[in-house]
Amino acid sequence: MAKFGLSQSIRRVEDPRLLKGGGRYTDDVAVAGQAQGYVLRSPHAHAKIVSIDTGAAKAMPGVLGVWTGADLAAAGIGHLPCLAPVKSVDGSPTSATPHPVLAEGVARYVGDPVAFIVAETIAQARDAAEAIEIDYDLLPAATDLATATDPGQPQIWPSAPNNTCFDWATGDAAKVDALIKGAAHVARLRVVNNRVVVASMEARASLAEYDAARNHWTITTNTQGSWLVRNVMAQNIFKVSTDNFRVVTPDVGGGFGMKIFIYPEHVLTAFAARAINRAVKWASERTEAFLSDTHGRDNITIGELALDKDGKFLALRTKNWAGMGAYLNTFAPFIPTGAGTKVLASVYGFQAIHAQVIGVMTNTVPVDAYRGAGRPESNYLVERLIDTAAHEVGIDRIELRRRNMVPSSAMPYTSAMGQRYDSGEFALILDTALTNMDWAGFPARKAESAKRGKKRGIGLAYYLEATGGSPTENAAVKFADDGFVDVYVGTQSTGQGHETAYAMMTSFELGIPIEKIRVKQGDSDTLPDGGGTGGARSLYSEGQAILVTTASVVEKGKIAASEHLEASVADIEFTPRDGGFTVVGTDRAIGILELAAVQRKKAAAGIEATILDAQETAEIKSHTFPNGCHVAEVEVDPETGVVAVARYIVVDDVGHALNPLIVRGQVHGGVTQGIGQALLERTAYDGDSGQLISASFMDYALPRADDLPSIEVELVAVPCETNPLGVKGAGEAGAVGSPPAVMNALVDALADAGVATIDMPATPEAVWKALAKAAA
Fold this sequence. Notes:
Blueprint: H1 15-19, E1 35-41, E2 47-53, H2 55-58, E3 63-68, H3 69-74, E4 106-107, E5 113-119, H4 122-131, E6 133-138, E7 164-171, H5 173-181, E8 185-193, E9 205-211, E10 216-221, H6 226-238, E11 245-248, H7 264-276, E12 280-283, H8 286-292, E13 299-307, E14 313-325, H9 335-341, E15 352-361, H10 375-393, H11 397-404, E16 413-414, E17 420-421, H12 426-437, H13 442-451, E18 455-464, E19 472-479, E20 485-489, H14 498-510, E21 517-521, H15 538-565, E22 572-575, E23 580-583, E24 589-591, H16 592-604, E25 614-619, E26 627-636, E27 643-653, H17 660-679, E28 711-715, H18 733-750, H19 764-775
Helix pairs in contact: 9-10, 10-18, 14-15, 15-16, 17-18
């Protein structure tokens, strides 16, 4: 029987089950008599829906129901809410973009749901969808973020003139203006954070069951937190008590932010299940996912960095046009504003920062949180801008960063954005990364590449992340009759290794063998609430909940042990290493598992007994600031424009790494997504029709194994001071630092050819064109 301490690289306990096909995902779940749902989507980016005739479809074989937006409106079904509106600088609220579950009157992007068909089989539902007659009156569309706010562009919402739904700002504008005016130098740069398709391995799905006698739904769906879906479905959509909904999330094959949200299909399956009094299931296909899952990023940002004569940073001013898509999604306005801007200061000692964010509507798939959620976009701008400033003022880019880093002696430090950093050894981590990469030896490697006709570049990016999420988290520990211990959590694993991490913690605190611990997640009936997974919050939030819950188990155990061992509670001692309760000064003892079983048997027999089970809520009073340095080395073939990432180094501070093996895996995944965004992933809309022309893996390039180097990760532990575990969120870190590191390396490689800047994605075509333009 294995008992593990913390900070050990043990293999994930869930992997044997998952690798041998034992995973159970939403589309694996089937119930007797379930019907199949199919969503008919708008083929047009912008069109009035003049009429919809569903008569022929309803008469098709096997069809059980066909519904439109008018049907849902007549039934009183609420719209999908935006839960994070912001106020513009003039105090006006975010423009209203009512988001019906099925389009009402106007379709606003290719993929906008227009009708829902339920039949005995999916083939019958598809056939019926083709029989629906819709009269569309086509309208001009605005799909390009760069031009959507220009005068004369097609207007998507009457409430959002010039397609601007908010104009938000934060920081000290007057101080920034004064510092910029008095600066010795101001570097300016415009960068693009390209729109990305999330493309999780497991597509979205929803299975709804309805109990008419109780007016109760059970929804099985792949989420990043069952409780949010439960709450929104009950309170905002169906307008009933949360007790009327149970949401169950089984295994989830990737989320990356996209599966946090409420989607039309959750509502449609629940509505249809009630309407036909049968279970209804919907599962997305891959191209359908491109057209219906929220997208990520989609920002155009201008940055201005003011420096004094000694190269010290004075001020930063940013203006960001943030694409929202056709509707304001669940948390969309918060991502580029409150989430993104809080890390603009990064690890540097700015005197003042001012950030303006303009929310822009386009006839495209809605945009919301994607791994890092605003922080990668901000870090990208800052690190690209610092390299630009270094080149313009003639200071080495490493030296410029080092001059401006907040020293460890200043901790705790409050940044120009008002964030309180509790800990950090930024210079140490920078130096470690440079040493690991052999930065000093780069000229020799560059010369060797030149002999082969290749251009070589090296670049780095120092990143700082700020984790986020719910201010509370819940956990429960229950001793089962079969001798196992069940740990119920309010977060949701989508591949991160939560089962291992939480089992390690529970084993460490209670002295229970790890193979006797089962982590239970995803069922909204098991805990009063759960904050879900997002914002790299899981370990430091759920970890604190597990700590307070296991402490409660121990206190109950002392009472139970005093009853069983016939001793005073004050004389009972618990030793986690042994997992047992002892009467101090004696050899009388009992193990926690044995004690739990004894107490349960007493209770079952009607004898008064203290049960060890516990459920507690932890307050999450402070968030964390993981940080680190990414260094990339690239090689460019000038004849083809192909960019190869030759080597990649990461040095991360995530505080205490509970399981370094899992942390490194998380970083690998994040870096891979960042390299994909930097070099490969292009979400392309046709300017005339508004069609998504990169709507499959034939046209959308996800990174593959041969696009990646071996990603080398070193962890430098600088314990977090604001939580008892000393941990900092690690789930998003890889995606925050990688795009600027790769792009800075690419610009370095192309600099001697006269290319000063290039935007993501730097595809071979884009690189070749940049070189050709510079040569001309």
